[in-house]
Write a structure and sequence with these properties.
This protein is an alpha+beta fold. The chain contains three helices and five strands, in the order H-H-E-E-H-E-E-E. A hairpin with a 5-residue loop joins strand 4 and strand 5 (200-210). The N and C termini lie far apart (148 Å).
């Protein structure tokens, strides 16, 4: 007769089943932990994405505002340029209208007995100290010189006339040179001529530029 003891075999099977269940539980816990971690990570990334999206929108809004500001600036600059060009044109027209009158009045002062050119006092003092020969003669008689032609074009004037002698011509040139209305005064070659009564005279020409 053969006897078989089955009790130890039941214990080993039970231990195996319990061990397998524990392993499954541990695996399930691990999977749940991993899933939870993934959810947390996904939520964190979504939050970062939302924050970056918000920053991008703010940046785009600033860029759009800057572009609008630059566009408005260009438009304003163009309008200012047109306005300044218009003002310059008006100033030139005004200068062209009043400039010749001012120049003629100044020349009348130069050619009036007892008067002289329009010049700033400090400029006159400096000329008197540095180059006395460049000073005009307040006692000069302008009737010793008379003009035969007075031509003004493009702010350039050309004088032609006759004088008693060369010093009268030089006095006229000195006065025009000191005047605040004329500059770059230049005497052209003169010539001796005889008057009606046989008096020797000087025929001269003079060029200058006009300031106005």
């Amino acid at each position: 007769m053969i006897r078989i003891n089955l009790l130890p075999q039941k214990r080993r099977g039970t231990e195996r089943r319990e061990g397998g269940q524990l392993w499954l539980v541990a695996l399930l816990i691990l999977v749940l932990a991993e899933v939870s971690g993934l959810f947390v990570f996904h939520g964190y990334k979504n939050q970062q994405l939302a924050e970056q999206t918000r920053k991008n929108r703010e940046l785009e809004a600033r860029i759009a505002q800057s572009k609008k500001a630059v566009q408005d600036h260009a438009e304003v600059t163009a309008k200012l340029a047109k306005l300044r060009a218009r003002e310059d044109a008006i100033a030139k027209l005004q200068s062209a209208r009043t400039g010749p009158t001012t120049m003629l009045l100044e020349f009348a002062r130069i050619m009036t007995p007892g008067r002289g050119p329009t010049v700033a006092p400090e400029v006159l003092d400096r000329v008197r100290r540095e180059d006395p020969l460049a000073m005009y003669n307040p006692n000069w008689d302008p009737r010793r010189l008379w003009l035969t032609a007075f031509i003004e074009s493009q702010r350039k004037v050309r004088l032609q006339g006759v004088a008693r002698d060369g010093e009268d011509v030089s006095e006229l040139a000195r006065r025009m040179h000191l005047s605040s209305c004329f500059h770059e005064v230049r005497l052209l070659p003169a010539a001796r001529v005889s008057g009606k009564s046989g008096i020797q005279l000087v025929r001269f020409e003079l060029e200058a530029k006009v300031k106005y």
